């Protein structure tokens, strides 16, 4: 039934199509890409700095350093999907745990967790993320690369989830079916997992979808500022490289930029659509 | 008729920031086997909290601070979550006020029934499902097999309440607590649900606690009644006795505020509201609203005295007052 409502919502459907395409591209893109990731092939074969739509072996042009833009966008999709989805999964796990605890136990432990969550809201998160990214790269994680960014984004992305989860749990736990379940002999764990968590799931799913978009954007910002992983293909890295050639080779930054916009738009539309489709108050 | 549930001097306080709310302050009563008992009183008199406390599910900041609960003569440790969970659903079934929110919107009717059955009986999923179908039949739902697969929002309010009753019966309890079971239903459905509760009580020889503020329901459904006021028992008696000759002014006032077919007299509302339970009035808690209040009513808390056969009243002046209603 939620599916039927989702299908009728045009923008959600468009979002779904874009996201599916994005996922498809990141998984199977490797078979369509003319060149392997981070390949400087063209530099030695006379096809460097080609403008777009002039050579169909390199439809979106190449960088002056020889990297093929179309191939990089395809390979970058995987990197961005990895960042978006895995970082979001980490955030959701932490956020749900913290939020559930803070909402279900309204005592002082809950208050302390709520306080910590609120501290995260006022921190200048981007600057701290950049700091951690740089420290991490210098100290430990030469080989970790993109995973380091994923972990950092995940660790800094949970507060919104925790906040919403806490609020929703506080609302749901007062509902009579929780009392009813309790009065009929259900254990606390059973109530929390079976009745409460499932009932707060729809706003969390919606938020996650928006968070994926947010994480992709943040990864672009991090890479663009030069704090990313220079050995893994991502759209942010391509944008950053394009920035240095922007006067001469505009196509290097334009196409990955469009890709980012479309992907982020897709996840946002999907999130909005899910919000409508999963809202139990709009029953038909 | 043996004693089923006995609540002895139960005290449940709510520890709020504004102070300690003494929602239930020394309530005692007994439910006998197969007997329908009414708990009556205004909103905030402690009806619901009393039974929730008897099942050990008072929500924070509420806490049971005193009193004993006996089930079939055996004392229950209200503090032991494990012990109380065996009582819930298995020996006491609870039907709450609002059938619209007492069923989890995400699960089918069958799912919710099976969950309770499997909590209390070692049965396979198919057996539990079969039992669910029988329960729906028992509460008078047509096409029970089809309804098992329905979600709560696909049912009407009356049907939902029947499902809630079926779920409360799933553990085959000896006592069914119905907390204002008809408040959220419209009048024709109310009659059906009450009818169902009455026949179930007889067929399954189950005790019933009916919580309500409606004296009409008490008259129709119960054999004994406990009148609560501001967290204390005002009066306890057999239902006909209470209607014939109330001994407590509060009971009399409650009766005077209910319309009667045989009289044309205007209804008399009870002036004022339920007192603040953080700082209750001194002496008798009803004294600020009582038409018969005297000096002693403010000075001393009236004890619960025996005023007749199986009859109790907590009023300093019950002997001198004649509160019988004019016929």
Explain how this protein is built.
The complex is a heterodimer of chains A (284) and B (327). By secondary structure, chain A is mostly helical. Chain A has a single domain (9-30, 66-278), classed as MetI-like fold. Helix content of chain A is 75%, strand content 0%. Chain A contains 11 helices and no strands. Chain A has helices at residues 2-8, 10-32, 41-45, 69-104, 108-122, 125-139, 146-173, 176-183, 188-224, 235-244, 251-278. In chain A, helix 5 (108-122) crosses helix 7 (146-173), helix 6 (125-139) packs across helix 7 (146-173) and helix 8 (176-183) packs across helix 9 (188-224). Chain A is elongated, with a radius of gyration of 22 Å. Chain A starts with a helix and ends in a 6-residue tail after the last helix. Chain B has 327 residues and is of the alpha/beta class. Chain B is built from 11 helices and 12 strands. Chain B has helices at 47-54, 81-87, 109-120, 125-138, 144-148, 157-169, 187-203, 215-221, 239-244, 249-256, 295-299, and strands at residues 3-16, 19-32, 36-40, 62-71, 74-76, 92-95, 175-179, 207-212, 224-229, 232-238, 305-308, 311-313. Chain B has an 8-stranded mixed β-sheet, with helices on both faces. A 4-stranded antiparallel β-sheet of chain B has the order 2-1-4-5. In chain B, helix 3 (109-120) crosses helix 4 (125-138) and helix 3 runs parallel beside helix 6. The model of chain B has no long low-confidence stretch (mean pLDDT 86).
């Amino acid at each position: 039934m939620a599916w039927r409502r989702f299908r009728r919502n045009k923008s959600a459907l468009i979002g779904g199509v874009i996201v599916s395409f994005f996922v498809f591209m990141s998984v199977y893109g490797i078979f369509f890409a003319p060149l392997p990731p981070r390949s400087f092939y063209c530099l030695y074969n006379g096809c460097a700095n080609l403008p777009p739509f002039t050579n169909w072996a390199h439809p979106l042009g190449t960088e002056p350093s020889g990297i093929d833009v179309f191939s990089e966008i395809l390979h970058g999709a995987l990197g961005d999907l990895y960042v978006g989805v895995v970082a979001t999964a980490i955030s959701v796990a932490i956020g749900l745990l913290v939020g559930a605890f803070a909402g279900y136990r309204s005592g002082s432990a809950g208050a302390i967790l709520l306080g910590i969550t609120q501290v995260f809201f006022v921190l200048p998160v981007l600057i701290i993320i950049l700091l951690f990214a740089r420290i991490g790269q210098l100290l430990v994680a030469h080989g970790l690369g993109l995973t380091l960014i994923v972990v950092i984004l995940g660790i800094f992305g949970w507060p919104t989830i925790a906040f919403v989860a806490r609020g929703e749990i506080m609302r749901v736990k007062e509902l009579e079916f929780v009392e009813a379940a309790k009065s009929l002999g259900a254990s606390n764990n059973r109530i929390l997992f079976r009745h409460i968590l499932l009932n707060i799931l729809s706003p969390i799913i919606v938020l996650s979808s928006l968070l994926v978009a947010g994480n992709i954007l943040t990864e672009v910002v991090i890479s663009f500022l030069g704090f990313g992983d220079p050995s893994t293909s991502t759209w942010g890295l391509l944008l950053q490289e394009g920035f240095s050639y922007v006067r001469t080779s505009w196509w290097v930054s334009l196409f990955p930029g469009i890709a980012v916009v479309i992907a982020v738009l897709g996840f946002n539309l999907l999130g909005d659509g899910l919000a409508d489709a999963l809202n139990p108050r709009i029953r038909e | 008729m043996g004693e089923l549930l006995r609540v002895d001097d139960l005290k449940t306080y709510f520890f709020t920031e504004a102070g300690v709310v003494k929602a239930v302050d020394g309530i005692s009563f007994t439910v006998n086997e197969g007997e329908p008992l009414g708990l009556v009183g205004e909103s905030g008199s402690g009806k619901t909290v009393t039974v929730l406390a008897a099942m050990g599910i008072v929500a924070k900041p509420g806490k049971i601070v005193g009193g004993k609960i006996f089930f079939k003569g055996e004392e229950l440790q209200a503090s032991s979550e494990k012990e109380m969970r065996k009582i819930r659903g298995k020996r006491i079934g609870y039907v709450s006020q609002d059938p619209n929110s007492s069923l989890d919107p995400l699960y089918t009717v069958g799912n919710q029934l099976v969950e309770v059955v499997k909590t209390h009986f070692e049965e396979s999923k198919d057996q539990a499902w079969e039992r669910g179908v029988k329960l729906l039949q028992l509460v008078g739902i047509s096409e029970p097999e089809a309804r098992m697969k329905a979600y709560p929002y696909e049912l009407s309010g009356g049907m939902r309440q029947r499902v809630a009753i079926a779920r409360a019966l799933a553990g085959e309890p000896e006592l069914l607590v119905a907390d204002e079971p008809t408040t959220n239903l419209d009048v024709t459905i109310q009659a059906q649900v009450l009818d169902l509760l009455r026949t179930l009580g007889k067929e399954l020889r189950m005790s019933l606690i009916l919580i309500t503020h409606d004296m009409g329901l008490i008259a129709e459904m119960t054999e004994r009644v406990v009148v609560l006021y501001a967290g204390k028992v005002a009066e306890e008696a057999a239902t006909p006795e209470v209607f014939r000759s109330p001994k407590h002014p509060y009971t009399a006032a409650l009766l005077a505020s209910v319309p009667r077919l045989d009289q044309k007299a205007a209804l008399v509302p009870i002036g004022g509201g339920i007192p603040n339970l953080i700082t209750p009035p001194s002496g008798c808690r009803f004294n600020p609203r009582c038409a018969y209040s005297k000096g002693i009513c403010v000075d001393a808390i009236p004890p619960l005295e025996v005023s007749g056969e199986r009859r109790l009243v907590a009023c300093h002046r019950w002997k001198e007052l004649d509160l019988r209603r004019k016929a």
